[in-house]
C-alpha cells in the first residue's frame, strides 16, 4: 500500500477518536486537529496518543480551528494528507439555536475554508475529502425511509449550516474534479458519546439513579424517533466512502427507527427496572413499576423551536457499492452504553452538568 496520511478535524470528538484508531490500525499516519481549551480536552484519544519523546508514533496532534483559514492552509501544507476527514463541527442541534452565527461559521464556512485550503495549495487532484454530512439535512419529513435522493428540508441553524457544507462539497467535486464525498450519517452513538446528546444523557441518568446519585431524568420530546447505530460501524463507513473508486454521497444508517421513549425503557431495563408511562405532553411521567417512584419527567426547556420528528435511513446504496452494513443492534448499543456508564460511575467521581441541554 502506498503510504497514506490522514488529516482529521474534530479528532477529540466521538467520531474523530474512533476514526483515528481505525486508521492507525490500517497503517495510516494520522494528524488530528484539536482546539485550544482551558483544560484537557483529549480524553477520548489519550489511549492512542504516544508522547513522541518516548517512542516513535504515527499519531500527531495540532492546534487548529475551522474558523481560522490561515491555520487550515498551514495544516494542510505541513501535513500533506492523502485523505482529509472533516468531522469538526458545533454538532449540537439545540445549541445551534442559541449560537446560530457561530454554528454557521464553523460548520458551513469552516468546510469551505478547508476545501479552499486544498485548492489554494494545488492539492485538489491528490487529496480525498470526506465531509461529515447528516440525516438532519432531511429535517421535516418528505419521504421515508430517507435515502440519497430524498429532498432536504433543514430544521435548525445546525442543519442549515450542514446543508451549505453538503453542497459546497458537491460543488468542489464538480467544479475542480476533487475527490470530495459526503457521508450522510444517521445518529450514531457509543460509550464516548457527548454527555448532552439524548442517548448518553439517558444512560448516564440510569446509572446515576441506580446508584442513588440522581433522582430524576428530565427530557424534552419523548416522541422523537431516530435511526440509532454504533459510531464504531460508522467510521468504517467513512473510510470506505473515501476508498470507493469514484467520489459519491452515501447514506449510512441501520434502517430501523426508535423513539426516545423506547430508548429510556430499554436503558432502564438494563438495570432491571421497568418504566410505566402515565399522563401526556408536558405532564407525562415515567414511573418505576416496582417502587412507584417517578424517574422520568418532561421539561419543556429541552423542546426545540423546530423539531425533526422522524428519521429512518435507507442504507441500500452503501450496502451495494461499499459493502457496508451496521453490525451493532439497537439493543446491544443501549446495553453497551449503560454498562460503560456503570463502569465509569464505579471508577470515577460522578459529575453532573445541570445546565446541560
Ligand atoms: P462531537 O461533537 O463529539 O465532536 C465534534 C468535534 O469538533 C470535537 O472534536 C470538537 O472539539 C470539534 N470542533 C467543534 N468546533 C470546532 C471548531 N470551530 N474548530 C475545530 N474543531 C471544532 O461530534 P461527533 O463526533 O458526534 O460528530 C462528528 C461529525 O459528524 C460532526 O461534524 C457532526 O456534526 C457530524 N455528525 C454526527 C452524527 C452523530 O450521530 N454523531 C451524525 C451525522 C453527522 P472539542 O472536543 O474541543 O469540542
Ligand atoms: P440529534 O441528537 O438532535 O438527533 O443530533 P440528540 O441526541 O441531541 O437529540 C435526539 C432527539 O432526542 C430529543 N430529546 C432530547 N435531546 C437532547 N439532546 N436532550 C434532551 O433532553 C432531549 N429530550 C428529547 C431531541 O429533541 C431529538 O429529537 C445528533 C447530533 O449528533 C448531530 O450532530 C447529528 O448530525 C445528528 O444526530 C444526526
Automatic annotation (TrEMBL):
Classification via InterPro entries: GDP_Man_deHydtase, NAD(P)-bd_dom, NAD(P)-bd_dom_sf
Enzymatic reactions: GDP-alpha-D-mannose = GDP-4-dehydro-alpha-D-rhamnose + H2O
- What Gene3D superfamilies does the record tag this protein with? NAD(P)-binding Rossmann-like Domain, UDP-galactose 4-epimerase, domain 1
Give the top-rank taxon of the lineage listed in the UniProt record for this protein: Bacteria
Which SUPFAM superfamilies does this UniProt record tie to the protein?
Answer: NAD(P)-binding Rossmann-fold domains (SSF51735)
* Molecular function terms from GO: GDP-mannose 4,6-dehydratase activity; NADP+ binding
Which UniProt key words apply to this protein?
A: Lyase, NADP, Nodulation
The Enzyme Commission number assigned here is: 4.2.1.47
Q: Which residue range or ranges hold the NAD(P)-binding domain? A: 7-337
What Pfam families would the database entry show?
GDP_Man_Dehyd
Q: Which cofactor does this sequence's record say it needs?
A: NADP(+)
Specify whether Magnesium is a keyword of the entry. no
Q: Enumerate the Gene Ontology biological process terms.
A: 'de novo' GDP-L-fucose biosynthetic process
Q: Per the similarity annotation, which family is this?
A: Belongs to the NAD(P)-dependent epimerase/dehydratase family. GDP-mannose 4,6-dehydratase subfamily.
Outline what the protein does.
Catalyzes the conversion of GDP-D-mannose to GDP-4-dehydro-6-deoxy-D-mannose.
Name the UniProt record assigns to this protein: GDP-mannose 4,6-dehydratase
Amino acid at each position: 500500500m502506498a503510504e497514506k496520511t490522514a488529516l482529521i478535524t474534530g479528532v477529540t470528538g466521538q467520531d474523530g477518536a474512533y476514526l483515528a484508531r481505525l486508521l492507525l490500525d490500517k497503517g495510516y499516519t494520522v494528524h488530528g486537529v484539536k482546539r485550544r481549551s482551558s483544560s484537557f480536552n483529549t480524553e477520548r484519544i489519550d489511549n492512542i496518543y504516544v508522547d513522541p519523546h518516548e517512542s516513535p508514533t504515527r499519531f500527531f496532534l495540532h492546534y487548529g480551528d475551522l474558523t481560522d483559514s490561515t491555520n487550515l492552509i498551514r495544516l494542510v501544507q505541513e501535513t500533506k494528507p492523502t485523505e482529509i476527514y472533516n468531522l469538526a463541527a458545533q454538532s449540537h442541534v439545540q445549541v445551534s439555536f442559541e449560537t446560530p452565527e457561530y454554528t454557521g461559521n464553523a460548520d458551513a464556512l469552516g468546510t469551505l475554508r478547508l476545501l479552499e485550503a486544498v485548492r489554494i495549495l494545488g492539492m485538489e487532484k491528490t487529496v480525498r475529502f470526506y465531509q461529515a454530512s447528516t440525516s438532519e439535512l432531511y429535517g421535516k419529513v418528505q419521504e421515508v425511509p430517507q435515502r440519497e435522493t430524498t429532498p432536504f428540508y433543514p430544521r435548525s441553524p445546525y442543519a442549515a449550516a450542514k446543508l451549505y457544507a453538503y453542497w459546497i462539497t458537491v460543488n468542489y467535486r464538480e467544479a475542480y474534479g476533487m475527490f470530495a464525498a459526503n457521508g450522510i450519517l444517521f445518529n450514531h452513538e457509543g460509550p464516548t458519546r457527548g454527555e448532552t446528546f439524548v442517548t448518553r444523557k439517558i444512560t448516564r441518568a440510569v446509572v446515576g439513579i441506580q446508584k442513588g446519585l440522581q433522582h430524576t431524568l428530565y427530557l424534552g420530546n419523548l416522541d422523537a424517533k431516530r435511526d440509532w447505530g454504533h459510531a464504531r460501524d460508522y467510521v468504517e463507513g467513512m473510510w470506505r466512502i473515501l476508498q470507493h473508486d469514484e467520489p459519491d454521497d452515501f447514506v449510512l444508517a441501520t434502517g430501523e427507527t426508535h423513539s426516545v421513549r423506547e430508548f429510556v425503557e430499554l436503558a432502564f431495563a438494563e438495570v432491571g427496572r421497568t418504566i410505566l408511562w402515565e399522563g401526556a405532553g408536558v405532564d407525562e411521567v415515567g414511573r418505576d413499576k416496582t417502587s412507584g417512584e417517578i424517574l422520568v419527567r418532561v421539561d419543556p426547556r429541552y423542546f426545540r423551536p423546530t423539531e425533526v420528528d422522524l428519521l429512518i435511513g435507507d442504507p441500500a446504496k452503501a450496502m451495494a457499492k461499499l459493502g457496508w452494513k451496521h453490525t451493532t443492534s439497537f439493543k446491544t448499543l443501549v446495553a453497551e452504553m449503560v454498562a460503560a456508564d456503570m463502569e465509569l460511575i464505579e471508577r470515577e467521581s460522578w459529575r453532573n452538568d445541570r445546565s446541560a441541554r
